[in-house]
Amino acid sequence: MQIVGRGAELAELAAAWDRAKAGEPQLAVVWGRRRVGKTYLLTHFAQGKRSVYFTATRQDADERQLRRFAEAVREQLGGEVADLAPSTFPSWEAALRFLAGLARIEPLLIVLDEAPRLTGGHADFADTVSAVWENHVRDQRLMLVLSGSAVALMEQMLGPQGGLHRRAGVERRMDPFPVLDARAFQPDLPPADFLQAYAACGGYPLHLMRWSAERSTEENLQEMAFTPGGLLLRDAPDILSEDLDWRGGYERVLTAMAGGARRRSRIAGRAQQRIDYTLDRLRRAGYVQVIRALGTSGSTDPLYEIADDYLAYWFAVLRDDADLIDGGQGAAVRQRTWGRWQTHVARVFESAAREHAQRLVANGTLPGDTIIGRWWKDETVEIDVLGLTGDQPALVGECRWQTKPLTQRDLADLRRRAAHLPSPGQAGLIFAFWARGSADESLAAHPEVRTFTPADILGTG
Q1: What topology is assigned to 349-457 in CATH?
Q2: Structural class in CATH, domain 179-347
Q3: Whether the predicted pLDDT of 1 surpasses 70
Q4: Overall CATH class of domain 7-173
Q5: Cα dihedral 295/297/303/306 (nearest 10)
Q6: What gap in Å lies between CA 175 and CA 171, rounded to an integer?
Q7: In the chain, what is the straight-line distance between the N-terminal and C-terminal CA atoms, in Å?
Q8: CA-CA distance, 292 to 363, in Å (whole number)?
Q9: Mean pLDDT across 222-251
Q10: Closest CA to 87 of 99, 101, 71, 102
């Protein structure tokens, strides 16, 4: 069983297991959206250990969950509990106390996957765990891992009012892979093709592994997004349903943002509702990110964007036409929405360019105290990539997903926008282009100009 990435998560869990084996009980909490690889990671971690792995099911009564859990204990621990384990447990407190007793001599790993489902989605299961941990767990060789896909609820359990507040020795949130790490799932795709795969799949391992390097981008999209039951078509509602109650208008807000509304007033206008609570919960759960202009000279009005590239794709391209796709008209929908797809890919490309600029700082190409971000002034001028050293601009960058070559005209336009910024320092200003297409030879005559390709972004150039 091979794990791609997640080295930090595995190392943290392994260190906790070593402490548990030494008689220091460990409580670990691992959470994140569906499809990010939590179950795959924890199943891999449990291999070769004396362990019980249990996945809670939706909308099951406690009685059924407890009976299923007792069955899992008997099946996975086998003969050693044949005369000890009951056919069911009267409560989760009794179940956890029983397991703590089994860890007095030999180390025991317990994984409760989708733990918030164990008490109907309420946080009181965390109170039960906390009470058992405080009153009945002392020096057992026990490691208990709680995992869940309901991000907001898991963070509520860990928060100041939650039952697990400051109880867990390991608190690890798993998010979709960033673009550079996700490259490991499709190392043979040409760089520009991989960026398109990432724009559709986001950093979700299963999505990326289903993308075929033998097919074109269009063929992969047709198979995975524009065919009834396609993985990319059906996964977004499942991911969102773990965490969001649609009665709060979350779908309308996310749809408005995917349609291009980035400022609070415009999001509220398109969603036709009050959005303060909704937007704040989406932000806290990691579905929405707040973007502020870098430095002091830009706009003070923040922008709001969908933080998950796959979900942004689903809302921008697939959501409104899902019924048509399910009705067999996916090929026509794909052609009709091609412009929206290209706009989405360009946004993902721009984000990847900023990540690349941060690596230029890390490797010494740019001064070590340079901060990378975005900049805009009201709605008059916008800069895709800005690098500030102190309060002075060190780099001004433009991202171009189109394949047409860069020209002197593009440089002149970037200079014009840079004129809205404070004056650069003595080192001068670097003008950078991240482009899918080539650059006109005339740009080579400008020593302050840098051009980067998709291969450079992915570290293969």
Answers
A1: Trna Endonuclease; Chain: A, domain 1 (3.40.1350)
A2: mainly alpha
A3: no
A4: alpha beta
A5: -30
A6: 13
A7: 31
A8: 25
A9: 91
A10: 71
